[in-house]
Model the fold of this input.
Amino acid sequence: MITKADFLDSIRKNFVFHQRGTTWFNQTEINIIKEIDKLHGIGKSELLTLGEVGNLNFPYFEMGSIDSVKLFGIDELILFSFYYANRNRYKKTLDLGANIGLHTLVMKKLGFQVTAYEPDSVHLAQIKKVMKLNDLGTDGLIPKAISDKRGTMDYIRILGNTTGSHLLGSKEEVYGATETVSVEVEDILEVLTEGNFDFVKMDVEGHEVVLLNRITPQSIATTDIMLEIGSEKNAKDIFKILSDKKIPAYAQKTNWAQVESVQDLPSHHTHGSLFLSMQGPPNWN
Done:
């Protein structure tokens, strides 16, 4: 399935069924889990084929109790299909919360010029390894976090699941052992204003409220954003921010229909992504 030449295009064509719980979603998720289990994991080949993206040299990697197998879930693959659908529309992209570099890798393989922010030193080392294995440079890799100001902030590393590490104050509850490190941060408004990006993938572990509160409609007039929302509180805060700023939103949770109420927003990572654009609904053509 994943190795088929038209894999991402088949996901793209079924965008009206991307909501969790549809027959297409459920069956596709089952099939993907089975195939990824065969292709990627401990002791398995570092090389795998991802549809139209082609070959990816992506070693298995553990991030506490979570591992790189989880990075190939159906919601992530839906995003990859979106990147593929827009490979001729977007040119310059911003990956906020690059983790160990899978989204950056896919976007680069599709021809995007990518600027990637990742503050975790362990993740950064893995991104550099991945880029080298795929004969791609590390230009555009920024060893910082993104916030509403320039300077330094405390970063909470969750040792049992570093995919959930975050800037201090971004999450109400934290489970398991942690360590606190100081990281450099840059101002999202300055980055957007100076960067002329077409597209932003935002996965900042609860800090999305701070970032969206900082941006202006003018700063994203020609920049689309795809993000994740991880809690009901953040969903409520974001709904108010978007309503006040009159920024249109479209949710995977409603098969990419325009958001009309807070109930339409994702409030957990299992609800999929949210697309923000001053230019109209997400392009699946």
User: Anything to note?
Assistant: The domain at 7-276 is CATH 3.40.50 (Rossmann fold). The mean pLDDT is 97. The longest strand covers residues 178-187.
